[in-house]
Design goal:
By secondary structure, this protein is mainly α. The chain has a single domain (6-94), classed as Arc Repressor Mutant, subunit A. It is built from four helices and two strands. The termini are far apart.
Amino acid sequence: MSSLNFKQLRYFCAVAANGIIARASEMLHVTPQTISGRLRELQEQMNARLFDESGRKPALTDTGRLVFSYADEMFRIGDELQDVCRGAYMARRRH
């Protein structure tokens, strides 16, 4: 399995949070086709369906909910790490 692509995960989380590819594409300033392609790649890479698209809106599968939970936590930790590093950098600049 190749390494995770954070852009794919970011697109996946945007669709999972918004429920609609078009809304996620507006938020991320990319085309719906770009998001659809990245989601397809992510599902192939994970060898799992992340969305059930049988209804009007794509709904997360059980695996999709698990991936969303992990991805959300990864991005939260990444943001926290960035904040910590910025704080350390600013503290060094003051001395």
